[in-house]
Design goal:
Number of strands: 39
Strand order of the largest sheet: 22-21-23-24-25-28-29-30
CATH superfamily of the largest domain: Rhodopsin 7-helix transmembrane proteins
Structural class: alpha/beta
Oligomer: single chain
């Protein structure tokens, strides 16, 4: 037999469907198509189904193709609610209650056609027109959920807390209805929250300033740390306590005006998802998940605790402030932990912080899962761990870490556990000394401790929760069920007890519960004022939807002095205290406030760290270091190690000409053109300037040679002056000789203008002086060469060439040759003169100070003209090379010109290829070499005769060889 649900269903195995109530239907709706119904005709349904006696008259013949056949499964629904269960065979409804008239049936036919062919559905809508109205009964599916603490008054506020830590699922054999989970392990902290709700409500009821003449009630449910139980509690607060509901709409107004809770984000999300569509306000005191700020998903959610969005940002800034760029994270495997760490990691990435590992745990995880997490933490190199964990989740982790002796970790905690007195008072967790984290600001609630300590089982003798609380608090039992157990007398005093329930030194969370209740009360107060509801007959106008609208506009000052309001996302302003776990002299742990975070302040003022003394992990005074790689010093840059996070890097020294003037620089900055990096590569300094200076050895040597050459020339001049009347001096045109000596002296001295820092005048002087003096010198040599050549050609009979190249012509030729060079120099200086410049092309690390020639045409014209005269002089001297030996000055001129030309020919490639000051040195060397060549080749033999061989300094000796050859 099938289960009888009031319709008396049984299976008879026949091909008949019998219904005790007659049908007076006028039409059948099948697959959305109306089918004609012929009333009063009795006909079977061919090939398929016949009706039980007494019902044929109410059926007409169904069209072909809509026949019901044997082997189908049938279900009957009433007003969209199932009335008959689906059964394998045709069913017969019997023993229907006489007062139940079904107004609308939906018969569902399902053919079993196998998995491959799918399933065929046939829907028939049978409408009955009855003389009696339909009465619908809505029954509660499942067991009724009852509140643990409940008082009904004018308006009721619901609350959901995890008063028990664990929801223990019961095993069932699938032959009966599953039983709800059993809640175990009383949570004294959550029980304190529940009593805080009652305290706030009683305080409001006794106040004449808010809701005068109105009493608030409460319904407090237990979520047992379970999402399923939390949702069940939320639905119970909406539906009330009745197992059945009989009215025409199967609906009822919500039992409460608002709900306070839950403490964790995931259960809160479940409740918010259930109550949101019914516009019931939900105010959480501890659900911090940033996801709950989504107004599209949770339009009725509010909270008195800040969103984790701000806490995650604050934690990232805290880690960055202490220089911890290499951290590990451990989170709760729920919405609270997942969303909190996700935001933290996103902000940390922007702050240059790397996460070595990210582990997720939950309080119900088996020990082997915890061991995996502990092993990861042991192997890690990060010494700082950001623990975004719920209090219930961190306890098993800390216990396992204590067993494994993993105590060298610097903990950074979230608000859920950083101020937990229970953790601080547990001796095995002493390694948490030095932990830092953000906590909700503490508050003091006057009268709460007195209220909490007055709780007694006698206040509600039949309340099992109060008895369980008493037994847990005093470790006793009211039933002598176990040998050796201590019996509870009821005379125990909570005032003498110190535990999480009676501890009111840290009421940050209880204060959030308190302000949540007051937020609902203020919303009701303003709503009743606007409705001008002075009597209870008008209170039916107050609905959760209207309360929701007024909660959005709540703005009041709590007794603690805190301004209470909600933003567009239902969040309050984020204000945190930075807490540091420290040990007092008596050995007890206390939470020292060392900073704060306020999201309402400008970004640069949100995080403030006081300069108070801080304790770090291991009770050290020195801040721990947690980095993947040590900071790169000045003068280096970071180079990320391949395949590793950006925080793992090598320090690479900056290249020449680049610097980094801050630690952990990602890039080296190039210096500008006139600066160069110093030895440490941490700042740019002026580049070293290079020029041929008198103070350096090469400059000094060249200057000495220049002065020496000028001095020798001066001595030669003195010798020639002293012996100007001797034949050898007179025979060489003493006037040209003295002019040549003067020009040679100028050539030696002009090389000095090439030494020293280039300036505008020195650049113009050095090239023009060099060009003019050398042309003067070559012109004199050329004159002497022509003179020698002409003089000996004049010895031939009838040759009168000397009259055309006498002293006036010699002077004029020298002047003419020199004026050409002067003209070239004037044009050069006029059009584009040489100028000092900074050459930065040859060397990156230094600047070459040199003279730019200005016009390259002018420069090479000067040198070309000198070269032209030198070649001409060389050719003429070469032609005169066979003159008499005693007076063969031409061969010395030839030799000097050969050296001169060789020097200046080699000068050109050397000048072009020599860098920096060596270019100037090459030019000076060419000047000195050619000058010494002229001086030594032309004047040294004569000085030798004058000073050492005076007997040869006679006209006879000079002319002797010539006469011999003539004969």
């Amino acid at each position: 037999m099938a289960e009888d649900r009031g319709g008396g269903i049984d299976i008879d195995g026949s091909t008949r469907l019998a219904m005790t109530q007659g049908f007076r239907g006028k039409k059948i709706m099948s697959l959305g198509q109306a089918v004609a119904w012929k009333s009063g005709k009795s006909a079977g349904i061919p090939g398929a189904l016949s009706l039980a006696p007494g019902t044929e008259s109410h059926w007409g013949k169904l069209p072909l193709g809509l026949e019901l056949s044997q082997g189908l499964e049938y279900s009957v629904y009433c007003d969209d609610a199932q009335f008959l269960y689906t059964i394998p065979m045709l069913v017969k409804s019997s023993n229907s209650p006489p007062d139940l008239i079904l107004s609308e049936f939906v018969v569902t036919a399902q053919r079993n056609m196998g998995k491959a062919n799918g399933t065929l559905f046939l829907l028939l809508l049978l409408t009955e027109i009855s003389t009696r109205p339909c009465t619908a009964v809505c029954s509660l599916l499942g067991q009724l959920a009852l509140p643990l603490l409940s008082v009904e008054r004018d308006f009721n506020i619901g609350a959901v807390f995890s008063i028990h830590r664990v929801a223990q699922l019961n095993r069932h054999p699938f032959t009966s209805r599953p039983q709800p989970a059993t809640c175990i392990s009383l949570n004294l902290r959550e029980f304190q929250f529940a009593q805080t709700v009652i305290f706030a409500i009683e305080e409001i009821n006794n106040s004449t300033l808010i809701l005068p003449g109105v009493s608030l009630g409460y319904k407090i449910y237990d979520a047992c740390g379970s999402i399923d139980q939390a949702i069940r509690a939320g639905m119970a607060l909406m539906n009330g306590h009745s197992e059945t509901l009989s009215d025409t709409s199967c609906s009822s107004s919500p039992f409460v005006q608002a709900i306070i809770g839950e403490s964790s984000s995931s259960p809160t999300i479940g409740i918010a998802s259930v109550v949101g569509p019914f516009s019931i306000p939900l105010i959480s005191h501890f659900a911090t998940c940033a996801c709950l700020s989504n107004r599209k998903r949770f339009p009725t959610f509010f909270r008195t605790i800040p969103s984790d969005y701000y806490q995650s940002i604050a934690l990232a800034q805290l880690v960055k402030h202490f220089g911890w760029t290499w951290v590990g994270t451990v989170r709760s495997r729920n919405d609270y932990g997942n969303n909190g760490i996700a935001i933290f990691e996103e902000v940390a990435q922007h702050e240059g912080i790397c996460v070595e590992y990210s582990e997720a745990i939950f309080r119900t995880d088996p020990r082997k899962e915890l061991l995996k997490t502990v092993e990861v933490m042991k192997r890690a190199t990060a010494r700082v761990v950001v623990a975004f964990l719920a209090l219930g989740d961190i306890i098993p982790l800390l216990t396992e870490l204590a067993l494994q002796n993993v105590t060298d970790i610097q903990w950074v905690g979230s608000e859920s556990w950083i101020t937990s007195r229970g953790l601080a008072e547990t001796a095995e967790y002493s390694f948490l000394i030095g932990a830092v984290g953000f906590a909700i600001r503490n508050a003091k609630l006057e009268g709460l401790w007195e209220f909490l300590t007055k709780v007694h089982p006698d206040q509600s003798p039949h309340n099992a929760l109060l008895r369980e609380f008493w037994e847990t608090a005093f470790q006793c039992t009211f039933k002598d069920s176990q040998r050796g157990s201590v019996l509870c007398t009821g005379s125990e005093s909570l005032a003498e007890l110190k535990n999480q329930y009676t501890d009111t030194s840290e009421l940050s969370m209880a204060n959030k519960v308190y302000t949540g209740v007051y937020s609902v009360a203020h919303a009701l107060h303003h709503l009743m004022q606007d409705l001008n509801s002075t009597n209870s007959s008008q209170w039916n106008q107050i609905t959760p939807q209207k309360v929701l609208e007024y909660i959005r506009e709540v703005n009041f000052t709590a007794k603690t002095g805190e301004q209470i309001f909600f933003d567009a996302s239902g969040d309050p302003a984020a204000r945190y205290d930075l807490i540091n776990w420290q040990q007092a002299e008596d050995g007890t742990l206390w939470f020292k406030k060392v900073g704060l975070y306020d999201s309402s302040q400008p970004s640069e003022k949100r995080f403030i760290l006081s300069h108070g003394h801080m304790i770090w992990a291991g009770e050290h005074n020195q801040k721990p270091v947690s980095v993947c790689s040590e900071s790169c010093p000045l003068g280096t840059r970071k180079a990320v190690q391949k395949g590793r996070p950006v925080c793992c890097f090598d320090c690479i020294s900056c290249a020449d000409g680049e610097i980094s003037n801050e630690t952990d620089s990602n890039d080296c900055l190039p210096c500008d053109l006139e600066h160069w990096s110093n030895k440490n590569r941490d700042r740019c300094v002026f580049k070293e300037t290079e020029f041929l200076s008198y103070t350096e050895i090469m400059g000094t040597v060249l200057a000495l040679f220049s002065v020496f050459g000028a001095s020798i020339t001066m001595l030669v001049s003195l010798v020639f002056l002293m012996y100007k009347d001797t034949p050898i001096v007179k025979a060489n045109n003493s006037e040209l000789s003295f002019l040549l000596l003067l020009s040679l002296k100028l050539c030696f001295l002009c090389s000095l203008t090439f030494i020293g820092r280039p300036s505008e005048w020195s650049c113009m002087l050095r090239h023009t002086a060099f060009g003019i003096t050398f042309v003067l010198c070559i012109s004199c040599v050329l004159g002497k060469t022509i003179l020698v050549l002409m003089a000996f050609r004049a010895t031939f009979p009838g040759n009168n060439v000397m009259k055309w190249f006498g002293p006036p012509q010699q002077r004029l030729s020298v002047l003419a040759f020199t004026l050409v060079q002067v003209l070239i120099c004037v044009l050069w200086l006029t059009i584009s003169p040489p100028f000092p410049c900074k050459n930065m092309k040859h060397y990156k690390e230094k600047i070459i100070l040199e003279c730019d020639v200005g016009s390259a045409v002018g420069f090479w014209a000067v040198l070309g003209y000198i070269g032209l005269l030198a070649v001409l002089c060389f050719v003429l001297a070469f032609l005169a090379r066979k003159l008499p030996d005693n007076f063969n000055e031409a061969k010395f001129i030839t030799f000097s010109m050969l050296i001169f030309c060789a020097v200046w020919i080699t000068f050109i490639p050397a000048y072009v290829s020599s860098p920096g000051k060596f270019t100037v040195a090459v030019e000076i060397f060419a000047i000195l070499a050619s000058s010494f060549a002229l001086l030594l080749c032309i004047f040294a033999p004569k000085c030798y005769i004058i000073l050492l061989k005076p007997e040869h300094n006679t006209k006879k000796h000079i002319m002797g060889k010539s006469s011999t050859k003539a004969h």
